[in-house]
Design brief:
The radius of gyration is 17 Å and the shape is globular. It is an all-beta fold and about 300 residues long. A five-stranded mixed β-sheet has the order 1-20-19-18-17, with no helix packed on it. The protein has one domain: Neuraminidase (6 Propeller), CATH 2.120.10.30. The protein contains no helices and 25 strands. It has strands at about 1-5, 30-35, 45-50, 55-60, 70, 75-85, 90-95, 100-105, 110-120, 125-130, 135-140, 150-155, 160-165, 170-175, 180, 190, 205-210, 215-220, 225-230, 240-245, 250-255, 260-265, 270-275, 280-290, 295-300. Helices cover about 0% and strands about 50% of the residues. A hairpin with an 8-residue loop joins strand 2 (about 30-35) and strand 3.
Length: about 300
């Protein structure tokens, strides 16, 4: 536990697709972050950061990008959400090839909000789709060819997704304060129950596994000044890794074992923090996006080594 400060509230809007200019020229180890920007359609972006923190813009004009994932060939997938005037949402998954060509990879049924992507070792894409009623979230599985099917569900407001080293899928449910585990055949069980989140309003948000099989979980609780990161061993034993964070969201580990954390304070620009294995933080990038709603960085992906 080291403490830091700064966070964001969650507002759920969504969909169709806007494509902006993309630059390829990324290298293995580059960090990609989705940025919502101002509330509304067509103002989202994807930023790229080199390992030394040099920022560039990969895509603009996106509709609420809320999930990023690379496949083994270096294609970047982006979950976007367009919301119309009647509050119907239309989620779309974009595919951006390594040379910057964009296309629509898949669409998700209307009235869902897409938030969180993960890819297994066979390049199947998994997406968390939150029902507009907020009382159930469907996890969709998309094959590399784009065929869509329902893989499972969580009974509340789903958030982050992450795979362990044996292709078990873990899903955060903010409403039930649980983290669910899905085996490759879709069998669901509770990995971490609500008793692990001691404050009645604390919810699991982002998920990431380290190389030792420990699950790191960002947590958020209103008014977003006492949030943190928990670490659970493969057996589910809980330890506090960091505290005093303002609304931490997405998590990701780089190849050297350093943890990157997105945080989006409700009244300031967002930050990306970098933690050593011992929990010592530094600010990797700051004042990202806008100080409004979910205006800053939320989800990450790291460019894989090309095959």
């Amino acid at each position: 536990m080291r403490a830091i400060a700064k966070v964001t509230c969650a507002v759920f809007q969504v969909v169709i697709l806007a494509i902006g200019a993309v630059t390829a020229n990324s290298e293995p180890g580059d960090l990609f972050a989705s940025i919502d920007g101002d509330p509304g359609n067509g103002v989202g972006s994807i930023y790229k950061y080199t390992p030394h923190g040099l920022q560039s813009t990969v895509a603009t004009g996106l509709f609420r990008p809320r999930g990023l994932a690379f496949d083994s060939a270096g294609n970047l997938f982006v979950a976007t959400n367009f919301c119309d005037a009647t509050r119907w949402c239309h989620p779309t998954i974009l595919k951006i090839t390594p040379d910057g060509v964009q296309s629509t990879f898949a669409t998700i049924p209307d009235s869902f909000f897409a938030q969180g992507l993960a890819i297994d070792r066979s390049d199947n894409l998994f997406l968390m789709a939150i029902a507009w009623s907020n009382d159930v979230s469907i996890i969709y599985k998309l094959t590399p060819q784009g065929a869509r099917g329902s893989f499972g569900f969580v009974p509340g407001h789903g958030m982050g997704l992450a795979f362990d080293s044996t292709d078990n899928l873990f899903a955060a449910d903010a409403t039930s304060q649980c983290i669910y585990k899905f085996t490759p055949d879709g069998t669901r069980s509770v990995f971490i129950g609500h008793e692990a989140f001691t404050n009645p309003e604390t919810s699991p948000i982002g998920l990431a596994f380290d190389r030792f099989g420990n699950l790191f979980v960002s947590t958020a609780v209103f008014p977003y000044n006492g949030d943190g990161i928990l670490r659970f061993s493969p057996q589910g034993v809980k330890n506090k890794f960091a505290s005093g964070l303002p609304n931490p969201r997405g998590l990701i580990f780089d190849s050297s074992g350093k943890l990157f954390v997105a945080q989006i304070p409700p009244s300031a620009g967002g930050d990306i923090l970098k933690f050593t294995r011992k929990g010592v933080p530094t600010v990797f990038a700051s004042e990202i996006g806008v100080p409004q709603e979910n205006g800053g960085p939320e989800y990450f992906a790291i460019q894989p080594a090309r095959r």
